[in-house]
Amino acid sequence: MAEDQDVVRFQNVGMRYGLGPEVLHDISFRLPKGSFHFLTGPSGAGKSSLLRLMYLAQRPSRGLVTLFGNDIATARRGALPDIRRRIGVVFQDFRLIDTMTAMENVAMPLRIAGASEAQVKEHVPELLRWVGLEDQIDARPPTLSGGQKQRVAIARAVIARPALLLADEPTGNVDAEIALRLMRLLEELNKIGTTVVVATHSEPLVARFKHRRLHLDAGELTALPGGGAQAGMA
Amino acid sequence: MIGHRAILPLSRDPASRFLPWLIAFMVWLAGLALAGAMQIQTTSDAWVKGVAGRLTMQVVPAADESAEALEARIGRALALLRETPGVARAEAMPKEAAAALLEPWLGKSALVEELPVPRMIDVVLEDGAPMDTRALGARIAAQVPGTSLEDHGLWLANLVTLAGAIQAIAFAIVGLIALAAVATVVFATKTGLAIHHEVVELLHLIGARDGFVAREFQGHAFRLGLKGGVGGFVLVAATVAVVVYLAGRVEAGLLPPIALGLAQWAALAGLAIAVALIAMITARLTVMRALARMP
To answer: How many CB atoms lie within 10 A of CB B266?
Structure first.
């Protein structure tokens, strides 16, 4: 795969929060367009930090990070919102806005991108139906269960058809059937060209869906326990 | 702001409750200072208009001088004044008019008639005519003893300087109040940013431009500023109305007439708009600055 087709490329990336210790060390990998990766590793390994770098919540302390061919270190600040709009994120803590309905939460990326109300009214209910929340369109997050919130968060992440979808434990709070359905949704998006990264602790999930994986341990990309293959190393 | 759907529930913040009251209080103070400055300007203009280009000659009665002799001296002084180039008009003030001016202090007693009250000659100069009032006064005093010429320009200049200083202080007060309003809005906006930090960060992460987030705060600040500004203007209007009423009840010419014209009321109403705009711009700059620190 040519490098210019990489959606994400990390090269010798290190990251620290403020003046604290480095939490990611010499990370190098690339994610080609249309790839599907699991991001695995024990708690505290740096999965969320790696995702934060990918969704531009954090800048690397060193090394090169490129997204859609843009070097993040040198990109104009004014160009970053356009890059972020191409990225859908399912946050581990959902980050739904409690004062907005499920419909409004999911519609937010469309509204930020300047979509018309007609587009919002056409696509948002359809997607909420798809994730099984057709009865909760007007519900606010405090009245939803953990699993329902997670589905709203996933719907919000995918509503704008992102080119890169990053999901942090997207199936952590849902039952097996819903988890399967959500994974199928992510695969559907992947089939139409979306590059997907799913951070998860769930080995059964990883085993069931045969996708490549990035494994982190103590802030470093490592060989998998048992010698499994690690995909996309730069 | 138009067409922008509010995402952040800023109206539920504590700052949203106290900010209009604070702004109303500030607009009230600023409005009173401004109204005072404008009233002083009006009065100062009236003074200048009333006495500019005018001189007053005093003719002091000599001891045991008969009324006829005094009238004769006044007549000579009038003649000299009227033949002076640049003098448009010179008229002696009737004795009754001088007595009327003294009436508030001395009453209507017939004794006033007997007092050696100086007689006045009102002199009106031609517009723009150069006049050495000191030389004119000396020349007439040499020919008509017991006369002196007063140039109002001297005391008027001091009065106008005083009025200007008071106005400058009033405008400084308005400026300080504006600074206080800016500081209050900065504080309220930073509080809002802290309360809604997670949502602001979320908007940022899903691709909202800084201006999009700033519009949430600036629109809210504009509404609160306008609310407080209108409240403050109502307080100013009520206060000015009370002062005008009370001043109107004061007899005699001790106070200049106190009243605000339409343009001055418009300027006071403009304070409400100005404070709303200041709040809006301050909130926007505060948010943009805070967002600029995000990755």
So the answer is: 10
Of B202, B292, B295, the CB nearest to A56: B295
Question: How far is B292 from B251, CA to CA, in rounded Å?
Answer: 62
Last residue of a domain, one of A107, A126, A161: A161
Nearest CB to B202; choose among A87, A95, A113: A95
pLDDT tens profile A15-42: 999 889 999 999 999 999 999 999 999 8
User: Distance between CA atoms of A73 and A62, rounded to whole angstroms?
Assistant: 9
Asked if residue A78 and residue A8 are part of one domain, the reply reads yes
What is residue A147's predicted lDDT score, i.e. its pLDDT? 82
- Domain membership of residue A22 (yes or no) is yes
A-chain residues within 8 Å CB-CB of B195?
A: none
Instruction: Test B199 with A97 for CB contact under 8 angstroms.
Output: yes
Same domain, A187 and A231: yes
Specify whether A133 is located in the same domain as A103.
yes
In a domain, residue A93? The reply is: no
Q: Which ipTM was obtained for this model?
A: 0.88
d(CA B224, CA B19): 7
pLDDT of residue B186: 96
Q: What's this model's pTM, rounded to 2 decimal places?
A: 0.77
